[in-house]
Amino acid sequence: MNISSLPITLPRILYGLVLTTPNYFYYAKKEEVSSMPYLVMAEDTELSKIIEKMVFEKLRKKEEIRCCKKSFRSGIEIYSVKDLDYLTRTCRVVFINFYSPACSYCKLFQPIFSYVGAMFKGKAAFAKANVIKVPEIAWQFDVRGTPTTIALIDGNLKAYIPGFVDETTFTRIVKDILEKAKCM
Fold first, then answer.
1. Which residues in 55-88 are b (16+ Cβ under 10 Å) and which e?
2. Which end of the chain lies in a sparser environment, N or C, as judged by fewer CB atoms within 10 Å?
């Protein structure tokens, strides 16, 4: 059976994948397949393999659509305004932890920031900025004390988190911001 000769309005299924239009694929569960009235199974195994390859390539590309064009390790250091600009151009959501080397609460928060950053790798960039080395960035975001964490969505300040935050609270804040940015 030639799959391309079917009317475009009818859903078509190939090994659990329903093709509803030429560019839109939908994965059907077995229960759904049995209840769908107009499904046609591809009998030609070579054709099925070709279409299956195309479908999985399409699904893989869909999964790759992330809020970051590049995946950064959690806690990457910002050394200049140029670094910050690169991060905001590469990731829609950027969390920056401003710290001071002499700050004890900064040292306590650093492992939490790194851990949560690793949990959400690929969805946001988690960077840190030493307020002594890059004061111009701290001034830009009106950072008055350390630790302070900010969240940027598309380069715009969306959250200002002053002080030490425990892991549960910080994880919840990150999830909320990522949901607002539609990155979850």
1. beeeeeeeeeeebbeeebebbeebeeeebbeebb
2. N
The C-alpha angle with vertex 105 and arms to 100 and 109, in degrees rounded to 5, equals 95
End residue of a domain, out of 64, 88, 103: 64
Query: Rounded distance, CA 39 to CA 6, Å?
Result: 10
Shared-domain flag, residues 97 and 173: yes
Beta pairing class for 125-130 and 93-99: parallel
- Three-class secondary structure of residue 62 per DSSP: helix
pLDDT tens for residues 64-97?
Answer: 446 888 888 889 999 999 999 999 999 999 999 9
What CATH number is associated with residue 103?
3.40.30.10
pTM over 0.70: no
Q: Are residues 59 and 87 in the same domain?
A: no
Asked if 8 and 35 touch (Cβ cutoff 8 Å), the reply is: no
| 43-62 tens-digit pLDDT | 556 776 777 777 666 655 55
Quote the pLDDT of residue 52.
Answer: 74
Provide the percentage of residues in the chain whose pLDDT is more than 70: 68
Q: Domain span at residue 176? A: 76-180
